[in-house]
Design brief:
This protein has 286 residues and is of the alpha/beta class. It has a single domain, classed as Alpha-Beta Barrel (TIM Barrel), CATH 3.20.20. The protein has 10 helices and 12 strands. The strands form 4 sheets. Strands 1, 4, 5, 6, 9 and 12 form a 6-stranded parallel sheet that branches. The radius of gyration is 18 Å and the shape is globular. The two termini are 32 Å apart. It binds zinc ion.
């Protein structure tokens, strides 16, 4: 390894260990730090689900019960961020659904409502009223359904217009995706859209600048724990194969860093394992 890359890796190691130790201390002391979870579909998929994006409804309900037993209260991302800034976020978390799959309203919302839990939907506006391009058997919410959700207290956030990989676009094109999706959503739901999630969880400095320019207060990635910054909020993806133990580690913020360190270390050969993590745990999903 070259000296410069070694130095960079050591810096990354220190940052990751700082995140991990904070989470580990919270886990040990029961501090209940804030967290954001990323879901896509709940219940049985209508067709193939190659990225393991669907979670059985009973398992999802069990995860909500687990959060309730830990004493967490679930709020919208915007409310959680207000609490983080005010220093009053301990014991609060946020549940998010990306891509606006219509079946989430019948499979997930009743479970959340029953427990008095709020949530945030992130919507790619060009997909509204059509089929999900990567899950063609799944219907995406219509304008009317989205308006109804907003009226019921669900936070509606943006997920760009066309769900492209924003860092691969020119800065102007990325900004257009973020400005237009916000404008279109605000017209549909007739209220301010303050939060967004980067498609595929992918962003870089230019993407963050585009989100700031477009006027968002918060923006989420989707690759595990990290420092809390308004336009790069940490978010944990939950998959169908996410075990109860992994779920608990993800909520505590101690699952991702170790995984990422293993993924980025360029020199050390990885041992052959028979209990290899399923492909679905590799960040980020769509
Ligand atoms: Zn997405």
């Amino acid at each position: 390894m070259r000296a410069s890359s070694k130095t960079a890796w050591r810096g990354r190691l220190r940052a990751e260990l700082a995140v991990w130790s904070t989470g580990a201390a919270a886990l040990a002391t029961g501090t209940r730090p804030p967290f954001i979870l990323c879901y896509h579909g709940i219940g049985a998929p209508a067709g193939p689900d190659p990225d393991d994006l669907f979670i059985a409804r009973a398992r999802f309900a069990g995860q909500l019960d687990r959060l309730g037993a830990l004493g967490y209260r679930m709020v919208t991302v915007s409310e959680l961020w207000r609490r983080v800034r005010a220093g009053s976020a301990l014991g609060f978390g946020a549940i998010t659904f990306d891509d606006g799959l219509a079946q989430v309203t019948s499979e997930a919302l009743p479970e959340l409502t029953e427990r008095g839990m709020q949530c945030t939907f992130y919507i790619a506006t060009a997909w509204l009223g059509g089929r999900h391009p990567h899950l063609p058997e799944e219907r995406v919410l219509t304008h009317d359904e989205l308006r109804g959700l907003a009226g019921d207290g669900v936070e509606i956030g943006a997920h760009s217009v066309d769900h492209l990989r924003l860092p691969e676009l020119t800065p102007g094109a990325a900004r257009e995706q973020l400005e237009r999706s916000r404008r279109e959503l605000e017209e549909i739901v007739d209220r301010p859209v303050q939060s967004m999630a980067y498609p595929f969880g992918q962003y870089d400095e230019r993407t963050v600048a585009a989100a700031r320019s477009a006027g968002y207060e918060t923006a989420c990635g989707c690759s595990g724990p990290g420092p809390w910054a308004a336009l790069s909020l940490p978010r944990e993806p939950i998959f169908g194969a996410t075990s109860d133990r992994r779920f608990r580690l993800k909520v505590a913020g101690v699952y991702g860093p170790v995984h990422r360190l293993r993924a980025v270390h360029p020199a050390r050969p990885r041992p052959v394992r028979t209990d290899r993590r399923p492909r679905s745990e590799l960040p980020p999903a769509p």
